[in-house]
Amino acid sequence: KISVLEGDSVTLNSDLTEMKDDDVIQWRFGNISIAEINVTADRITVYDDVLDGRFRDRLKLDNQTGSLTITNTRTEDTGLYELQTNSVEKTFVLLVF
After folding, report:
1. What's residue 17's pLDDT?
2. N or C: which end of the chain has fewer CB within 10 A?
3. Coil, strand or helix: which one is 76?
4. Each residue of 48-65: pLDDT tens digit?
5. Rounded CA separation 11/40 (Å)
6. Strand partners of residue 13
7. Rg, the chain, Cα only
8. Locate the Immunoglobulin V-set domain: which residues (predicted)?
């Protein structure tokens, strides 16, 4: 569980030190994809227009570790975030007050 105040930034850490050549990293909010890194295709994609643009211009992906930063958090960002890679699955509960 991670708690932040509205307007703060928060980083959801993947705990990966580096990505492998064949890694695909996916971030989901609920069951909606919000970001992805495909190392093989050398592609970083942020789906910030999903959920009516809720995350527009507020998601940042670290291309070394795959960690996800949400800037200027809002109360509607509260919820379940899931990280899935070839080797790791993590779940985060974010509470924004």
Report:
1. 80
2. N
3. helix
4. 889 899 999 999 999 888
5. 24
6. none
7. 13
8. 2-86
